[in-house]
Amino acid sequence: MSSQVSKAARRVTHELHGVVVSAGLMQKTVKVRVAGQKWNKIVNKFYADPKHYLVHDPNSSLRTGDVVAIAPGWPTSRHKRHVVKQIIAPFGEPIESRPVVPSLNEIIAERETKKNAKDDRKSLRRQSEHEQRLSQKKVAADEREVKRTAWEQLMVKFGP
Fold first, then answer.
1. Which of 68, 83, 102 marks a domain boundary?
2. How far is residue 136 CA from its own chain's centroid?
3. Which of 63, 69, 87, 159 has the fewest CB atoms within 10 Å of its CB?
4. Domains in the chain: how many in total?
5. What is the pTM of this model?
């Protein structure tokens, strides 16, 4: 049984290629510049219009200057919406000496296990809260019963 996350992630068919501009300043996050062009219709000319994306790097395996492929994924944080797909061309340190970049399927599987664990914890918490509410209701009902019997005894003793 696959979740909505895995279905949405597998539905993505396009990827972007860019250069890592900033790495190591944030935990599990890198900034990638993706090249682009913008047409200026007054001058009739294309101008460079790069876009910057914050990308989730689960093992912190990217370094500044790497050329990478990124894929849109799910919101990891407020501004992170992309995931590293692969390192196309490393810069400086070779790939073999770095932590492995997990594949998209591995990331999805890890996310699914975390989601299932969270759902289990949530259901256990709800169940315990439900049991607490039932026990509180039972205690309140018992108190009402005690008060009612005490009232009935008073009514029998002193009359209406």
1. 102
2. 36
3. 159
4. 2
5. 0.68
44-49: list long-range contacts, CB under 8 Å, 24+ apart.
none
- The encoded tokens of residue 125 equal 């918490």
Please give the Cα distance from 35 to 17 (Å, whole number).
8
pLDDT tens by residue, the chain, 160 residues: 456 655 655 555 688 999 999 998 999 999 999 999 999 999 999 999 999 999 999 898 999 999 999 999 888 899 999 999 999 999 988 988 989 989 888 888 988 999 999 999 999 999 999 999 999 999 998 888 888 888 888 878 776 6
Q: Check if the beta carbon of residue 60 is closer than 8 Å to that of residue 31.
A: no
SS3 of residue 36 by DSSP: coil
Q: Which amino acid, 55?
A: V
| Cβ atoms of residues 36 and 18 within 8 Å | no
